[in-house]
Amino acid sequence: MTSFPSAPIAAEAHDALAANDAMDSAASALDLDKRGHQIYPTLSDADIDQMRSFGHACSYRDGAPVIEAGTTCYGLMLVLAGAIAMYRSNGLDEPSLFVTYRAGQFAGEVAQLSGRPPLANGYAVGATDVLVVPPESLRALLVAHADLGERIVRALILRRVGLIEQNAGGPTIIGARSQGRVHALQSFLAANGHPYRLVDPADDARAADLIARLQASGDDLPLVVCPDGAIEKNPAMVDIGRCLGMLPALDEHKVWDVIVVGAGPAGLATAVYAASEGLSVLVLETRAYGGQAGASARIENYLGFPTGVSGGALAGRAYVQAQKFGVEIAIPAAAGRLVCDTWPLQVELCGSAQRLRARTVVLSCGARYRRPSLANLRQFEGRGVYYWASPIEARLCRAQEVVLVGGGNSAGQAAVFLSAHAARVHLLIRRDSLADTMSRYLIERIEATPNIALHTHSEIVALEGDDDGLTQVRVRNARTDTEQDYDVRRVFLFIGAEPNTGWLGDCGVDVDQHGFIRTGFDVTRAQCRANFEHGVYPPDLPTRAALETSVPGVFAIGDVRAASTKRVAAAVGEGAGVVAQIHQFLANLPADRRA
Question: What is the fold, at CATH topology level, of the domain defined by 377-493?
Answer without folding.
Answer: FAD/NAD(P)-binding domain (3.50.50)
